[in-house]
Amino acid sequence: MNGIYLDYQSSKPVDPRVVEAMLPYFREKFGNPSSLHLEGDQATEVLENCREDIARFIHADKDEIIFTSGATESNNLALIGFALRNRNKGNHIVISEIEHISVHNIAKFLEKSGFEVSRIPVDQYGRISLQKLHDRITEKTILVSIGYASNEIGTIQLVSEIGKLCREKGIAFHSDAVAAEGLLPVDVTKDNLDLLTLSSNDIYGPKGLGILYVKEGTKLNTLMIGGGQERGLRSGTENIPAIVGMRKTVEIMQKEMDIEVKRFTQYRDELIRGVLETIPKCHLNGHPQHRLPNNAHFRFDGIEGESLLLSLKDKGISVSTGSACTSKTLEPSHTLIALGLLHEEAHGSLQLTCGRFSQPKDVEKVMEVLPGVVERLRKLSPIYR
Amino acid sequence: MKSTNYSEKVLDHFRNPRNVGTLEGEDVAVGRVGNPVCGDLMEMYIKVEDDKIKDIKFKTFGCGSAIATSSMITEMVKGKSLEEAMKVTRQDVANELDGLPPIKMHCSNLAADALHDAIKNYRNKSKSMSAPTKSPEEKREIIGEKEFENKGVYHKADDLSIFKDKRVIVLDKGDRSQEIALNLTKLTSRVILATSSKDLVTNPELKIKLKQSDVKILYESEILEIRGTNEVEKVLIHDLNEDEEYELFVDAMIIL
Q1: How many CA atoms lie within 13 A of B129 on its CB side?
Q2: How many helices (H) and strands (E) would you count in chain B?
Q3: How far apart are CA A288 and CA A179, in angstroms?
Q4: Which domains does chain B possess?
Q5: Mutation test of the interface with chain A: which of B63, B218, B232, choosing the one with the most A Cβ atoms within 10 A?
Q6: Among the listed residues B26, B68, B67, B64, the one whose alpha carbon sits nearest the alpha carbon of residue B47
Q7: Torsion-angle region of A5 (φ positive above 0: left; ψ -120 to 50: alpha; else: beta)
């Protein structure tokens, strides 16, 4: 990181302590858990120990953890794997309007494959109402998938209550908790979860590893066919260095999360207060209270996000935007549209997410630079008068 | 290729845009183009003397390439004859900037269109904006208006407290509806006033109040349909200016 990095939601550096823990598993401890010799036995042992430690992090049992290549694969296995296996019970799946793009696109795929998908709208702060969820559930509903918290606007959902409702109705509940992990105490028992997606990089572990928690008794079809690893649910030789890395990062998290979250909350609140007080015609997106401790998300009347992002880039500040002009499809963020924003409003959004290596000076720098950048772009704008 | 993979020249024009601003006067014409899907909007002002572009200014809402192409074209055509300026194409602008990311060629490269529009307006001796002016259509029933009556659609607004923290869209029906919109801002942060006309028809005092308030005014917009499951969840809006339809998530609609 050379400048000011405030885009932890997109990617995180791997903690140096994690890199250290992984190193021996590239060279000396390289065994394949499927092998029957000494190296293989050692690999099996470390794999199962890691599984147990990672399971404990979310209050799960070790046999309920499936290692995958990342959150996208976990979401695929959860939704498609569950839908295909449980088709005889019904063909209806419920998600929200503000799911992560992977869940949205998986849902579209399932629609093409003959499933029906309902998308629950959210309120102006990005929360789904239990009543609306309740109303959408039918006799054919087999699965509800609602993100733990929004990866864009940071709004936290009433996860355990959604889980409770699903359990009462006998419907499986999946949650993608990538945005929330390491920031909120995810607990599969308290949250009444049947399926849960986590990623390693989002808690400062290596990329290329995710997990899917599969509650005992939950049946899935496999999507990756091969040598039958991970109880046959996910074939492919286990990525032991990454798994060891994730175990290390979970261990650090358990010790440091509380202090870290306090620090993030302070940065976030300073940013939100500072920006809203200093810059006219500026709004906070997402929930004023129930939001991730590291997430500040704004929109500025009359300016467009990509030009905002580029201007901040010139000043050495890395951020995200929900603007269409930075997306592959040139469509504005579906999450911002679901909040009830107009296209022109969604275009003027700015997302700032802090993380482990953020410092108070990062917030100061943003406050020093951002008002001027917004003012300059507004002078160019025909719609800000 | 990344959508923000810009040439140095694009970045230079983005960082230091030339000829930003507006022009006024008898010999000035304005061109205006926009693509609401991509979110770019450009206004090009030309001052013409002896059939030549004596001065040119622009204002642009949009991404890096939208701003850079606007700036670039002002440099390219300043001093040129109207005929020469009409010949400048989108491709010419992109070439002059050492290229644009492919995805930006179409939607953020509208500067030539805005310029041509301004020239046409000058030739037509019409100094008005190019936007087609459509007269508000006859009142007709909105699809779903009956279905969602009292399930998010209200024809009276005596008790505003039911709209607390809701996203409310108010159909403009003159002073009374506009006052309701203003009063709603005390109860919720999201109030939209939709009018089919280009400007609000109201008394000057109320107009100023509305413009200074948090009411979001949607001009030249017609509500076609109210959608939802059991209750209002969104409305389908027809943007008369762009002739485009889009959905907007709301919780309630007031139709006096």
Answers
A1: 13
A2: 8, 11
A3: 17
A4: 9-123 (3.90.1010.10), 153-254 (3.50.50.60)
A5: B63
A6: B26
A7: beta
Residue A9 C-alpha from the chain's centroid:
8
Q: State the smallest CA–CA distance between residue B226 and chain A in angstroms.
A: 14
As a whole number of angstroms, the distance between CA A144 and CA A310 comes to 38
Task: For chain A, positions 266-295, list CB contacts with chain B under 8 A.
Answer: 283
Do B33 and B56 meet the contact criterion of CB atoms below 8 Å apart?
Answer: no
Q: What is the pLDDT of residues B134-188, one digit of tens each?
A: 444 456 789 999 999 999 999 998 899 999 999 999 999 999 999 999 999 999 9
pLDDT tens digits, one per residue of B36-94: 556 788 999 999 999 999 999 999 998 899 999 999 999 999 999 999 999 999 999 99
Chain B contact present for A167, CB below 8 A: no
- Which of A50, A166, A325, A354 is an active site residue? A325
pLDDT at position B126: 47
Q: Which residues of chain A make contact with B167, given a CB cutoff of 8 A?
A: 123-124, 340
pTM of the model: 0.90
Average pLDDT over residues A252-256: 97
Tell me, yes or no, if A282 is annotated catalytic: no
d(CA A206, CA A129): 35
Exactly one of B20, B86, B105, B107 is catalytic; name it. B107
CA A188 – CA A362 distance, rounded (Å)? 35
pLDDT digits (tens, 9 = 90+) for B101-137: 888 887 677 899 999 999 999 998 644 444 444 444 4
List CB contacts of B248: < 8 A, sequence separation 6 or more: A340, A342, B169, B192, B234, B235, B237
Mutation target to probe the B interface, by most B beta carbons within 10 A, among A131, A290, A342, A374 is A342
Is A374 an interface residue toward B (CB < 8 Å)? no
Domains and CATH numbers, chain A: 4-10+257-377 (3.90.1150.10), 16-252 (3.40.640.10)
